[in-house]
Backbone:
């Protein structure tokens, strides 16, 4: 029997990068291959130039003759199915011409153009002679082009770009040159504390902002971003989501590599494969105790309801656990910090004695102070990246998400689970648009993390939620159906029995 008999053939999304080699491996072909690997995508490479380069700068450039670039392109494309071509350093007009001919000849489906002209150290990588090739030949083939401010300015005849408004106009003008989507990266924009990029799809502008990570290790961010976009597109991710995923990948990699020391120059590389180490930490760290199954019946407290029913927070928490809650969150919106810590310390002790995890809503400082098992943060609370940095790998971090894009970011940023909602209308949390069962399903289907549904859920509708049967929908998070009740134990027990029945019949 042959070795492959009986086993299904496997297919891997495939990006071909056409770019220059960076001997220091922070940028260029080396960054492209690492970014694609991190995204789980195969990356072949056609080398257009070899640079002698390190963290100090570019010491030399050796351009590959266009005939040999052609030979490499034909070797790959005549043999392998390439989903996306991503271009980086294209050192001569001749290379651009042959590349464009071959893209058309082999009918490559998707083209991502990173119009690399100047290195991060300020060295010229593609001279002005290539500009016409970019404008007249490559941009009209591009599904997306990703210039930084200097490159956008060069593509537009040297105009000055100083504001977000200028970036929007530049994105529109570059779209008019033929690229179907444009991402103008504002990392160099003066006077802005966030890294703001403008994405334009020909109809709508999206302002994508993320925290500016202060580090010397930014060499290769442009190549990485474009390659990660290419990798996501190769997997079939829609364009805007691919851009958002790439941006959050770069943010996370920079944060993880913030203090990395490789080389002595001013611009160091970062670690594209940080996730492998993060997961290593997860496996070894104390939070390996976190099991997604603990999301089945997630009790979220409310001190107004406790006051109404004349019980202390400790009594409410204890009753919910005795009724069968599998995880508890202290959601305290009114108490002052000292009082909150006081309550939290008592509740941590109760939850530990039952072996049930206790998370703190919003307040990473309180979670640290009382040694809770973790935090739950919303989209406008402390970002997951920073919460993780403060709490370390051993704590549980949950984040609220209403959309697939937020779910993708939650995973890239290192969250452990997603709270998704409000699913149904509720008076417990005001000004919180509901997403319905369809919104919940969309998040569950796209999420790589376990999901707990929240908002207006109780015994009467829990089944409609769990019936969505998305494999990563692990349970329901509930406030009023447990705590705005005369008997917390009885109501928790009732809901727990229903959930257990649903889970058992599902098996
Ligand atoms: C499990 C769970 N999911 C979602 C939320 C909501 O968190 P957030 O969006 O930060 O809103 P507040 O709870 O802070 O009002 C949650 N608390 N728990
Ligand atoms: C905290 C929160 N986040 C989204 S909806 C919600 C409130 C859920 O409360 P209830 O279970 O009483 O509807
Ligand atoms: Mg919050």
Residues:
């Amino acid at each position: 029997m042959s070795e492959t008999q009986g086993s299904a053939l496997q297919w891997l999304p495939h990006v071909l990068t056409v770019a220059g080699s960076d001997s220091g491996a922070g940028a260029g072909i080396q960054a492209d291959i690492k970014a694609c690997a991190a995204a789980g995508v195969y990356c072949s490479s056609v080398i257009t130039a070899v640079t002698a380069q390190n963290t100090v700068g570019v010491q030399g450039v050796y351009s590959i003759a266009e005939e040999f670039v052609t030979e490499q392109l034909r070797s790959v494309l005549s043999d392998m199915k390439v989903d996306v071509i991503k271009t980086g350093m294209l050192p001569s007009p001749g290379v651009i011409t042959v590349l464009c001919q071959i893209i058309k000849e082999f009918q490559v489906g998707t083209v991502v153009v990173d119009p690399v002209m100047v290195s991060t150290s300020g060295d010229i990588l593609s001279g002005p002679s290539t500009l016409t090739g970019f404008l007249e030949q490559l941009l009209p083939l591009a599904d997306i082009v990703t210039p930084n401010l200097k490159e956008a300015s060069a593509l537009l005849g040297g105009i000055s770009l100083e504001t977000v408004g200028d970036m929007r106009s530049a994105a529109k003008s570059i779209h008019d040159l033929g690229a179907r989507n444009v991402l103008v990266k504002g990392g160099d924009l003066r006077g802005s504390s966030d890294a703001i990029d403008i994405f334009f799809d020909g109809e709508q502008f999206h302002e994508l902002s993320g925290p500016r990570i202060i580090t010397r290790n930014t060499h290769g961010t442009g190549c990485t971003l474009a390659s990660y976009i290419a990798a996501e597109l190769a997997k079939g991710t829609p364009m805007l989501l691919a851009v958002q995923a790439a941006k959050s990948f770069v943010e996370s990699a920079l944060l993880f590599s913030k203090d990395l020391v490789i080389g002595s120059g001013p611009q160091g590389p970062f670690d594209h494969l940080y996730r492998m180490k993060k997961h290593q930490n997860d496996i070894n760290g104390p939070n390996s105790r976190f099991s997604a199954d603990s999301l089945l019946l997630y009790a979220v407290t409310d001190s107004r309801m406790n006051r109404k029913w004349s019980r202390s927070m400790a009594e409410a928490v204890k009753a919910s656990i005795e009724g069968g809650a599998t995880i508890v969150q202290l959601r305290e919106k009114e108490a002052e910090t000292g009082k909150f810590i006081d309550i939290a310390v008592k509740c941590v002790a109760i939850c530990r004695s039952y072996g049930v995890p206790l998370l703190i809503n919003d307040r990473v400082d309180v979670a640290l102070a009382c040694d809770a098992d973790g935090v739950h943060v919303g989209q406008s609370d402390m970002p997951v990246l920073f919460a993780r940095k403060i709490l370390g790998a051993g704590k549980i971090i949950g984040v609220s998400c209403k959309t697939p894009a937020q779910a993708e970011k939650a995973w890239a940023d290192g969250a452990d689970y997603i709270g998704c909602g409000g699913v149904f209308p509720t008076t417990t949390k005001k000004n919180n648009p509901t997403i319905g069962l369809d919104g919940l399903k969309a998040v569950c289907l796209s999420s790589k993390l376990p999901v707990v549904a929240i908002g207006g859920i109780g015994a009467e509708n829990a089944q409609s939620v769990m019936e969505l049967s998305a494999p990563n929908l692990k349970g329901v998070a509930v406030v009023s159906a447990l705590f705005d009740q005369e008997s917390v134990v009885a109501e928790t027990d009732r809901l727990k029995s229903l959930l257990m029945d649903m889970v058992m019949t599902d098996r």
